[in-house]
Automatic annotation (TrEMBL):
UniProt KW Chaperone keyword: yes
Positions bound to ATP: E31, N35, D76, M81, S96, G97, T166, R328
Species this chain originates from: Plebeiibacterium marinum
Cited PANTHER family: HEAT SHOCK PROTEIN 90 FAMILY MEMBER
Keyword tags: ATP-binding, Chaperone, Coiled coil, Cytoplasm, Nucleotide-binding, Stress response
Family: Belongs to the heat shock protein 90 family.
Span of domain Histidine kinase/HSP90-like ATPase: 24-176
Entry coiled-coil feature ranges: 589-616
NCBIfam families with a match to the protein in the record: PRK05218.1
The UniProt record lists the keyword Cytoplasm: yes
Name of this chain's protein: Chaperone protein HtpG
InterPro entries, A to Z: HATPase_C_sf, HATPase_dom, Heat_shock_protein_90_CS, HSP90_C, Hsp90_fam, Hsp90_N, Ribosomal_Su5_D2-typ_SF
Pfam families documented for this protein: HATPase_c_3, HSP90
GO terms of molecular function: ATP binding; ATP hydrolysis activity; ATP-dependent protein folding chaperone; unfolded protein binding
Amino acid sequence: MSKGHIGVTSENIFPIIKKFLYSDHEIFLRELVSNAVDASQKLKTLASVGEFKGEMGELKVKVTIDEKKKTLTISDRGVGMTAEEIDKYINQIAFSGAEEFLDKYKNDANAIIGHFGLGFYSSFMVAKKVEIQTLSHQEGAQAVKWSCDGSPEYTLEDIKKDDRGTDIVLYIDDENKQFLEKAEITRLLNKYCRFLPVEVAFGKKTEWKDGKEVELEEDNVVNETNPLWTKKPADLKDEDYNKFYRDLYPMSEDPIFNIHLNVDYPFNLTGILYFPKIKNNVEVQKNKIQLYSNQVFITDSVENIVPEFLTLLHGVLDSPDIPLNVSRSYLQADGNVKKISNHITKKVADRLAEIFKNDRKGFEEKWDSLKLFIEYGMLTEEKFYDKAQKFYLFKNTDGKYFTFDEYKDIIKENQTDKDKQLVYLYTTNVEEQHSFIEGAKAKGYDVLEMDGQLDSHFINQLEQKFEKSRFVRVDGDVAEKLIPKENTLESKLSSGDKDDLTSVFSAQVPSTDKMNFIVTFEAMGADANPAIITQQEFMRRMKEMSAMQGGGMNFYGEMPDSYQLVVNENHPLVERILSDKNEKVGEQVNSVRSKIESLNGKRQELEKAKEGKKDEEVPQVQKDELADVDKKISELNTKKTEILSGFSTDNKLVSQLIDLALLSNNMLKGEALTKFVKRSIDLI
């Protein structure tokens, strides 16, 4: 038996492993099983080239637990090691500049392990002692046992071992007893070793017999050595792809379709990506792509490794060009990873274009599930936008689908405004905005459904991409003003009438901290509604985006919703309210207005006397007189408003027209709705 010191430049590697790798300590099993698989595959390679002529037999990797001895053992029948090879591969660890490196990567376990090839040494995260019992495949080799208790000292001695290969025996420490539990090891093997290319067995298969679980003779193999992505697409059917998807995601609905990747130049990449039936929630869908290197699981946190929009896809990617044991930050900066990312984006776009071209009807049927994903890609990846603009589909309120070019041709004649801008009308809720949709259709306009989670952002992007075009929500204005044309209807109201009616309607519009209303007037046809509520497009869109992303947009999110109550100047009911106003309070209002006009005349004279003079050159008497006039005008305006508000409060028709406008926007609720119903009965 010989003793020696492990060749490390840091004083003691083991406390470093324990301290800095502890948060990711479960990866030890992946490392050790992967090493065992590598040893098995090396033997296959040697046999294939004639360097190993012995009986290969079964190359299964076995994982066993001994609860009494508190050991976990990983065994293989691969190439094994000689004493010299143990000295080379186990005892000599290139670990220079340890302190500097650890300071840089102290929060990233994978970086430490991967950067220095310390896969085997990850076992010391969970074990107080580790043994290697190994017999090389080489003819006449002597079996040896290497043992280390977590100090730089090790022992190496000859042993008797009947079978070639290696057993790694971990004496699990008290802090990591969970790794002696069958359920925990099963979980880790399923997570990290599910698709390894050599069979991995853990215990025996069991079955229920006579009301109890009985162990069988057959090994319990935990992995699929030839997963679907390693097979040729020509040999697979839709059922195969759907079954594999259900194996990966047992609780999910069947996907819409898939992309089978098989690239061997300029890098190696295989995998299957699935388009899931995406619900209207981006966040829930992420982290469903599993990343592998030679069938060894790396991570399912693929943000910043693949383009963000691709994180909505499900499936697996496997590339030997992606290093196994590295940090995610390293992966993000890796040249091969970037090339792979760009290639996947292209393949996804090409596949969508192919389906659209070959089966447009089927593509349209899947559109509601695809739309969120495609918009996400177009918003975040310029190259994807360039390809996707050919197959992105607008859907209108009649359920018909159009490409960008098709839709432009349909609306350009009737939906071009007086400034030669093409106006795209859209709704975000067909039911709530139904009356506005019908009003737009009555004028021959077409209305798009843009009710998706990302549509506010997407509309902004399209306005930047499309030439001389803008998007207007169908309830953004009255139908006559959604697409301004040269011809306008003449108003039947004077400016004084509008002024009075502004006070009349303003007295009854709702007023809360969360919403405010501005009364405006518009000359519409007599058949249009007497009053309509609209919301200014820019502010509404900013608030919608604010609700999604927060951050710097919070300014808009905290502002109250601002609406316009647009009164139809030419509607008979509005004329009736005006007539009623003139009859009941007309003399009072005209008397006050006459006084205001007289004071306004005097104010103009006083302002004219100030012209050309500096403030200090104007006599104080004139300043006081002007201030007095302003005060009287303000008081009279207040009085006029009070008279008109008093008239409004007792006028059921004003209340009814406002409530009808609120009701058509789904904004009349609670007590206000109860009052409306009672008033409607009274009026009938």
